[in-house]
Amino acid sequence: MIKRSTAGMLALLLASTAHAQVAKPTENLAAPVKTFGRVSYDARSLMIDGKRRVIWSAEFHPFRLPSPDLWRDVLQKLKASGFNTVAIYFDWGYHSPKQGVYDFTGIRDMDRVLREAAEEGLYVITRAGPYVNAELSRGGFPGWLVNQRGRARTDDAAYMAAADEWLTRIDAIIARHQINNGGSVILHQIENELALTTSAQRRYMDHLYAKARGDGITVPLFHNDQGRNGYWVPESSTVANVVHGPNDLYAFDGYPGGTCTAQGKPTRGSAAPDWGYYGTGGAKGGASASPDTPAFLAEFGGGWFDYWGSNGGYDCNAIQRGKRFQRVFYGTNLANGIDIQSVYMGYGGTSWGWLPAPVVFTSYDYGSAISEPRELRTKAEEMKQLGGLIAAVPDLAGMVPAGEPIVSSPNVQVYHNKNPETDARFLMVTHKPSNGSTDDRFTITADLPDGRYTLPAAEPMRLNGFDAKWLVAGVTIGKQRLVYSTSELQAAMSVDGSDLMLLYGRAGESGETMLRYESAPQVRVLEGQATSRFDAAKGDLRLDYPHQGRAVVRVEGGGRPPLTLILADEAEAVRYWRQGPALVRGPALVRSVTLKGGTLAIIGDTREDTPLEIWAAKAVKSIRWNDSAVATRPTAIGSRTAERNLAGPAPISLPTLTWRAAYGSPEAQPGFDDSMWQSAEGKPYASITARPDGQPNLSMDAYGFHDGDVWYRGRFTGTPDAKQIALYYGAGGSGMVQVWVDGRFVGQDELPGGLPRPITTGTARFDLPASAQGTGEHVVSIMVRNNGHNWDLDSDDAHKEARGLISASIEAPGGRSFAVPVAWKIQGKQGGEDLPDPARGVANNGGQYGERTGWHLPGFDDAKWQAAPTSVQPGTTWYRSRFDLALPKGQDTTVAVAFGDTDTPRSVARYRALVFVNGWNIGQFIAHVGPQRVFPIPEGILNHHGTNTIALAVTSDGAPGDMLEPVKLVTMRTVKGGLPVRMVDAPQRIEASK
Ligand code: IPT
């Protein structure tokens, strides 16, 4: 190996510093309201139907979950976890195998996901590219676009015409789902992190804006700046040094908070940045780049991606940006007036098939709140609490700084905001700096709407370790007046003329809640411990209690309707779901609650035998859980409990896999019939990769092969001096090349894993076997595995880096290359850009012999295949296994394919496998690179109630031991509940073409 190049990659975990608590309201609070149908905004917040809303969003990529019946599962989990909005990227390349050819059916039915989001009560932020990045091969550009010479992401005419092709189609779908047309799309993004700001880019941006408007997009348009650079801010901004664009809103992305160590340990290196009111960012600082528009974080890192050869970062990412981080960082954003905030990712999912860019492997779990197998992580519980507060206190939208309160501890800071209309307060308590982790006791003294208070009045509050508290004060909830609480509010509900509040705190800490009454109310402690005292002069009722399990307090009289307070510790509070007309305690998930004709229907999941408790209207006569009646009885605290626990899931048993195998690299043999292959000659070269002169253009894309594996066969007349063959190839992250001469394997070369910045091209030299050095005709056979095209993050056409062979030279001794003409033929994915299997689509296949002949498909007849071999050959050997599943019905189970010893990220054995389940390429396992060994298969791809086929294309250098390790099916999760899932419709077989 003599030469490597690196793909442009980000090292953009933006650092931040702690700031003094000096509010600098750079927003132009007098900015006029701008209206786009039902959506409007001023400098403080977005408004929907004139009502201010905190837009609390999380990202989901439908293309990373190729089983559309499960999209609703993810949407419901986001909703149940407190989000009111979902942000969706659309992947141009996913829909377009060939210029002019588009598919929006089946797993590509974007109309469906937008409809379902609206049905689930979620607003949608659409992000339609043309470029999206998103750790996708080519950043979402279609394969055919790399053959375009004109610079992408500029006003180059051919590029813009191509982009328009896509935009016309996707915009038409998005347009009909806008809130202005009866759907729920409220904001629309044009382009993604375009950090090059030349006039060609400005004209391109103008074009994109006009195109969206021309296509009927009527909601506000925005672009997401890579950081707080002030790129593409609306013309209304008079801030110095910004780059103006045609956009309505300015948005930026941020991924602060550090990363895990290589050993998988979280770090707390930086404090939460002040990217708004409390920032000191100068002219370009934070939201102030566009003072007339609301502060908008289009992506805030809620996890991070992971790379080939890591030690497995996702579990740590989930902690690094998990519980407490969310409270501190998302809370600081909100305190800074960032009222539009979207977490990237809410559900990461799977970069199945050839979707991944070189920077990532198959799993795109991202450490997000919903894990790849669709389980709610612990961090989702905290999300639910944050979302619950936003839903319970609409006054949080459009707040402004309210002046610094007095805090008794120097280690603690309190962001203090108010709603100018209602005067309601938000007190966001963190350490100073916010990544501090000391154990502190403190009080806060502030002029609150109901008077000046030092709180708590009893014993001081506590902030123990890296944490934050989201407190509200001076807020009217239902018919109650919450003067302040040192507990956090998770949910509120008004029912039958009474109010209910769920407040929580850290276990063992005491809580204090102050309520306002006209006269002394009656206080009854129905459960647990609490004390109360009434200050008749002020009308203040003070409740003091420990956060320990649960206390329930009922307050009646005093000039207000009755109030029930549930005072919980965290472990207790996270068991509650505020859905529809009810508050439900118990299940692992409550997807929805509806009340119809006296019947309260609750839909959800249980992870185990679970008690059920419900607060709902008296009008509820009967209760159903997942369509079965539940007998309940009233409790002394005003709820009802189920007479019997809800059942948990039944155990899962999975079959052992047995295999048949066949050798799958016949192209290596000199006599292989390649008469139908294309000659590699004459195609124009559009790649950015500099290429030695005097050779034909060998790059795979020029011949219509954009993804996965590609084969080359070259014929040359030998000379006695021909000693070596030197290759320059492009193969993406951990890609590889294998070489045979006259049917003899001469070696392979792999691009190294273990680097967060992948090396994506390489050079390798192989000795020719003595037999090939004589005169006469010889055949060289080469397989290149293309593990993805680079993204175009820096808008420098990096996605056009060549893939496949770039050059190949026969060399004399000493590495001198001399002219031995080689007649090359090339073969890749069957049909090239004309897909034989449009249902599975563009990302499913490359050009392995077994893929070209349908060995990966369930309908292939493998009766003639042999038992699995006991020794290994260089090249690719296919293994197939057929098995039946009869998993429990009414249960949501995620089954996975697991390779070898799942306790280590890497094997000693060196081999890789493409994993096809019922014909679907659900990922790539690279044994000696790792880290992923367990590949979840979404139901719908896997048949939980029928016959399944797994096909593995195992590629090895043939050295002893470099062969497939034991493969088994494992259960990653199972719950009782879930949604009905049908099999995704796709062909059982295709016609072979070799
Ligand atoms: C930002 C991209 O917009 C998004 O598509 C994705 O790639 C994300 O990062 C990382 O997962 S790029 C920003 C971190 C510079």
TrEMBL record:
InterPro entries in the cross-refs: Betagal_dom2 (IPR018954), Betagal_dom2_sf (IPR037110), BetaGal_dom3 (IPR025972), BetaGal_dom3_sf (IPR036833), BetaGal_jelly_roll_dom (IPR025300), Galactose-bd-like_sf (IPR008979), GH (IPR017853), Gly_Hdrlase_35_cat (IPR031330)
Transmembrane parts of this sequence: none
UniProt cross-references to SMART domains, sorted A to Z: BetaGal_dom2
Keyword presence, Nucleotide-binding: no
Chain ranges of the Beta-galactosidase domain: 393-576
Pfam families: BetaGal_ABD2 (PF13364), BetaGal_dom2 (PF10435), BetaGal_dom3 (PF13363), Glyco_hydro_35 (PF01301)
This protein's record includes keyword Hydrolase: yes
Signal sequence extent: 1-20
Catalytic reaction list: Hydrolysis of terminal non-reducing beta-D-galactose residues in beta-D-galactosides
Keywords: Glycoprotein, Glycosidase, Hydrolase, Signal
Coiled-coil region: none
Top-level enzyme category: hydrolase
EC numbers on record: 3.2.1.23
Family membership: Belongs to the glycosyl hydrolase 35 family.
Name of this chain's protein: beta-galactosidase
